[in-house]
UniProtKB/TrEMBL annotation:
Signal sequence range: none
Regions crossing the membrane: 20-38, 50-71, 83-106, 113-136, 148-165, 172-189, 195-213, 220-242, 262-286
Protein name per its UniProtKB record: Threonine/serine exporter family protein
Origin superkingdom: Bacteria
Domain Threonine/Serine exporter ThrE as annotated: residue spans: 152-290
Length: 307
């Protein structure tokens, strides 16, 4: 049930300013985890997409109820916070790895699963919001205004909870927590001080993760994918994907008279999410590729010396 601890941290990183949001988000994420486990163990529904849809439906209902009873003012983050844990970042980033390596079939399979997961989450939260309150998540969510140390602390919490969420052994948690906090601090510096775009800042943060984690993972014989994804989970652009989905709903309601601002927002959110995922994948894969090439050269040199 690591999502119960990860969801509030991710909500803070994605602009949550009202402290009343955090316990509601944590409870909703915990309840969603219980619901998905109950569906799998008691009902025998092991379809991952169905479980994601059910958890998103519950998050939408909780957000609508919280808004109706004035428990939280920002219904969008109440609804999206529990779902940020469930965004299939590893599947989407793994798809970019496979497509870059020309492993097309498995890359397309992972990409399809990731996109279907986003559709299931978006449909669930929008239907749940409609059932409870009729208010969809706001596509114009405010950016995060955390200080650097708050940003790093939230990223460390998210990385630790991700490790618990995906059953990473506890002996491996220290590395992604520390490196993930440093990488998110570097991303914060790139965004606030250098005024870089979100994709560029996330790519630089992931590059730091790749440079640090790859040699340590090789030395300690740790799985690079598990440790690397745990370190960068806080940088996955889940909020942009959900904002794009909310914007598409608003576009459907507006019809032909949709304002250009709404169309521009949808395109900007979708483009930011895509570019961020690509930049994150490149940041992780470039150091790994360099180390693999160095290892192959060492092997060839050793073979020449032997003969």
């Amino acid at each position: 049930m690591g999502g119960g601890g990860q969801a509030p941290a991710l909500s803070l990183l994605n602009g949550a300013a009202d402290p009343q949001i955090l316990p509601v988000v944590g409870v909703a994420a915990f309840a969603g985890g219980l619901l998905r486990r109950w569906m799998g163990e008691r009902l025998g529904i092991n379809n991952g997409l169905a479980q994601l849809f059910a958890a998103a439906l519950l998050a939408g209902v909780v957000g609508g109820v919280a808004t109706r009873f004035h428990v939280a003012l920002d219904s969008g983050l109440v609804m999206m916070g529990p779902l940020l844990v469930l965004v299939p970042g590893p599947a989407l980033m793994g798809a970019t790895f496979d497509l870059a390596g020309l492993r097309l079939l498995i890359g397309l399979a992972r990409l399809t699963y990731g996109l279907l997961s986003i559709v299931a989450l978006s449909a669930g939260v929008l239907i749940g919001a409609g059932l409870a309150d009729g208010v969809a998540p706001d596509p114009n969510a405010p950016p995060s205004d955390l200080s650097w140390w708050q940003d790093m602390a939230c990223a460390a919490m998210a990385s630790a909870a991700y490790g618990v969420f995906f059953s990473i052994p506890y002996r491996m948690l220290a590395l992604p927590v520390i490196v993930g906090a440093l990488a998110h601090g570097l991303r914060w510096f790139c965004l606030t001080e250098l005024h870089l775009a979100n994709a560029s800042a996330a790519g630089i943060g992931c590059l730091l993760v790749g440079v640090v984690v790859e040699p340590i993972a090789r030395r300690w014989r740790l799985p690079f994918a598990a440790v690397g994804f745990a370190a960068v989970v806080a940088q996955v652009p889940g909020s942009f994907l959900f904002r794009m989905a909310a914007g598409l709903v608003e576009l459907q309601r507006a019809g032909a008279g949709a304002p250009l601002r709404l169309l521009a927002g949808i395109g900007a959110d979708g483009g930011t999410a895509l570019l961020t995922l690509v930049a994150m994948a490149l940041g992780l894969v470039i150091p790994k590729s360099i180390w693999m090439r160095l290892d192959s050269r060492r092997c060839r040199a050793a073979e020449h010396e032997r003969f």
